[in-house]
Amino acid sequence: MKNYASADIRNFAIVGHGACGKTILSEALLANGKEINRIGSIENGSTVSDYHLDEHDRQISIHSTPLHLEWLEKKYNFIDTPGYADFLGEAISSLAVVDFSVVVVHAVNGIEVGTEMMWNYANKLGIPKILVVNGMDREHANFDSIFKQAQAHFGKNMIPLQLPLDEGPGFSQVVDIIRKKIATFSKDKSGKYTESDIPAELQDKVNSLHQQLIEYVAEADDSLLEKYFDQGNLSEEEMRLGLHKAVQENIFIPVYCTSAVKNMGVTRLMDFISKYGSSPVDRVSKTAEKSGSQKPVEIKLSDKNPVLYVFKTISEPHVGELSFFRVYSGQIKTGMDLYNSARGRNERLGQL
Hints:
30% helix; alpha/beta
């Protein structure tokens, strides 16, 4: 198994209202990362994450499913979560162990109850968010309308880093605000794209959004803010260096538009996650509750004492009981005795 430095790991959850496209977006991520050779289908039960029989029968996600891939030399550990209220606990427990969230919104239905609930839980946990308007290939998809809805619900500090040029069934082109280029995606679902220059009629809009992005970046860093006031602008290199910090501090919310089923816009989202997404290094400490005293205790990434958090336990046929956990400090080994603070006793770790 390849070893990854903490800074090269991206732990995130894909959340949102039911039927907004989270599972197919997960499929597109896996396909781009070469973990699967094609994007599966909800209808024929061929997706990686919806593998239980009850999920096949209902054609919805019921369980949260941990997945992984590598992109631009970064390790993605991500969780596809259910969106329907009956299974909300699966999504909430997933948000508890990630460093940021990808909040998916339906390109026609817009902001729904599940969207707001997941957004509020992410805020409560203090983790950054990326908003993805998915399904831009659908009839009546309207990015501008959904973007205004999102601003009305979640605040004005949102900025689209992709703009669709041809929303609807023919969707294949987006304007990339960071690169100031048009990306035209291949129709073979490979996620590949070619770049071209922005036409004159869009230049003013793109330049305005690019300038707004620079202002948000400057706001996150005092030295960059000082340069911005002195020079009236930041260089492209300075802007890109400050992007990561601005995202971590929730100075602005990046907004992307995709068609997961056609794998369009997804690779640019993945590029952004790899370059600017949160890593465990961005959250070097975690506040927990000391067992028996209810006093807060701080756990640091550098601590040698092993600390883990179990966020999901399932019983699988022919395997038995499986527990999924995140390690927050130290090392975990088979046969190790650890104190279970929920049950108030020591437990021995079985096979890992």
